[in-house]
Automatic annotation (TrEMBL):
<dbReference type="Pfam" id="PF23400">
    <property type="entry name" value="CARF_Card1"/>
</dbReference>
<dbReference type="InterPro" id="IPR011335">
    <property type="entry name" value="Restrct_endonuc-II-like"/>
</dbReference>
<protein>
    <recommendedName>
        <fullName>CRISPR-associated protein, APE2256 family</fullName>
    </recommendedName>
</protein>
<dbReference type="GO" id="GO:0003676">
    <property type="term" value="F:nucleic acid binding"/>
</dbReference>
<feature type="domain" description="Card1 endonuclease">
    <location>
        <begin position="327"/>
        <end position="416"/>
    </location>
</feature>
<dbReference type="InterPro" id="IPR011856">
    <property type="entry name" value="tRNA_endonuc-like_dom_sf"/>
</dbReference>
<dbReference type="Pfam" id="PF09002">
    <property type="entry name" value="Card1_endonuc"/>
</dbReference>
<dbReference type="InterPro" id="IPR015093">
    <property type="entry name" value="Card1_endonucl_dom"/>
</dbReference>
<feature type="domain" description="Card1 CARF">
    <location>
        <begin position="20"/>
        <end position="149"/>
    </location>
</feature>
<dbReference type="InterPro" id="IPR056339">
    <property type="entry name" value="CARF_Card1"/>
</dbReference>
Length: 423
């Protein structure tokens, strides 16, 4: 057991008041937050060392500094800022500030560990040298292997696997200056019976729903067949077992309504058939996989203390702060597992255009390297063009989840874990 992380209970209680972590402010917030969420951590104080760029509150580092402080304080940790900012590209500048801080902590008999994962490479070198000269422990957050590498002054590195407590989806988004609002789940209950039929007849049900959804996409701009209520006339009838079963549950849920000899699809039906069903299916399968700490459906994001974040290229109507880097304010399905966030954008029917890829790239830019992005499609793999797959890789998508991957929870789990390198 690593004596610099999980001490004997009596020792831990004795040192709890003096365990301090020194960190380097970084745009990648998780590497500075994860150690504080590690199970059995005795860290109670965090000292933040920032570069001079962070002194501009509107800069990216300025926002990272304030977001990191806010999450740590919500964790009931005491947060202290270094007296002066450092030069991000001068190791000696960081070394001097960290050494002075460590000397002060030693004078007050405080046990310190220096987390040198954040900041620039020059800052990391300076912080590491200061720690070695002061004879205190160092910490590196190894995100690839999901472990903390701790090293005492005279010891070999000690690897402690991530075992996080309380690092939720909500915490992750707030660490990046966003407030998530989660769907209350009623919509999932409403569609439960329909989803049962969809899964029973998979993959035939996917082909049917894609066909019906395409029909509504084509009719969406037609005013002649739309009623004042928003309902649209349905011009086809079910012709096989799969279509009949789906039609029956849609009618039972009053998504399809009959008036005389005619059937009409409500506005809700059109939303469901053009993609909502795929979001519900993805959420169900991810929940059933039991490999995530948390799964959330239909998240709506707001900037801290502002109105809803704007869509691509739009200004937030009631916000004076920066928008979400071009990201739309609604996310279909989100998971988190040991501090790693995954966003699943669902797209039924044919994959075309650039909007979805643009949205996912903007999210990757905003949410950091701990976020993994997936595009979920109802199309089979052989219907996705090589050009689209190439662009998806260029836009840093972890994987395109296809119709074949959605057969059951096990197959979806395997596809996701293969993409992120999990086991």
């Amino acid at each position: 057991m690593c004596r610099y992380w999980r001490e004997d209970v009596a020792v831990a209680k004795a040192e709890a008041k003096s365990k301090v972590m020194v960190v380097l402010v970084s745009e990648q917030r998780m590497q500075n937050l994860i150690p504080c969420f590690q199970k059995d951590s005795t860290i109670t104080n965090v000292h933040l060392v920032r570069s001079s760029d962070a002194d501009n509150p509107d800069s990216r580092l300025g926002k990272a500094w304030s977001d990191t402080k806010a999450v740590l304080e919500e964790r009931k940790l005491e947060v202290v800022d270094a007296d002066v900012a450092v030069d991000a590209y001068d190791p000696a500048s960081t070394e001097k500030v960290v050494k002075r801080l460590l000397d002060k902590l030693a004078h007050h008999k405080r046990t310190a560990v220096v987390n040198f994962t954040g900041g620039t490479k020059c800052m990391a070198v300076g912080a590491y040298l200061a720690a070695r000269q002061a004879g205190v422990a160092t910490l590196y957050v190894d995100t690839a292997r999901r472990q903390l590498l701790l090293r005492a002054h005279d010891d070999q590195p000690c690897a402690v696997p991530f075992e996080l407590d309380g690092l939720s989806i909500d915490t992750y988004f707030r660490a990046y200056g966003l407030n998530p609002r989660v769907n209350d789940g009623q919509i999932l209950e409403r569609y439960a019976k329909i989803m049962t039929v969809i899964r029973r007849y998979w993959p035939g049900s996917a082909a049917t729903l894609d066909m019906w959804g395409k029909h509504f996409d084509q009719k969406s701009s037609s005013r002649r067949k739309r009623r004042l209520s928003g309902a649209v006339k349905v011009s086809w009838r079910p012709s096989d077992e799969v279509e009949c079963e789906l039609w029956a549950v849609l009618e039972e849920a009053r998504l399809f309504c009959q008036e005389g000899e005619e059937f009409f699809a409500s506005a809700e039906a059109r939303q469901f058939l053009t993609g909502r069903w795929l979001e519900c299916l993805t959420y169900q399968l991810l929940r059933e996989s039991n490999c995530f700490d948390e799964v959330a459906f239909d998240l709506h994001l707001t900037e801290k203390n502002t109105a809803l974040a704007a869509g691509p290229g739009e200004a937030s109507p009631a916000s004076t702060t920066a928008p979400t880097g071009g990201a739309a304010n609604q996310l279909d399905v989100v998971t988190i597992e040991q501090g790693n966030l995954a966003v699943f954008e669902c797209k039924s029917g044919n994959l075309r255009g650039q909007d979805t890829l643009n949205k996912l790239q903007a999210l990757w830019t905003r949410l950091g390297t701990f976020a993994r992005l997936f595009l979920v499609t109802s199309c089979p793999l052989d219907e996705i063009s090589g050009d689209f797959r190439y662009r998806a890789r260029a836009y840093r998508l972890a994987r395109i989840i296809t119709r074949e991957d959605l057969e059951d929870a096990g197959k979806l789990k395997d596809a996701v874990l293969k993409a992120v390198g999990g086991s």
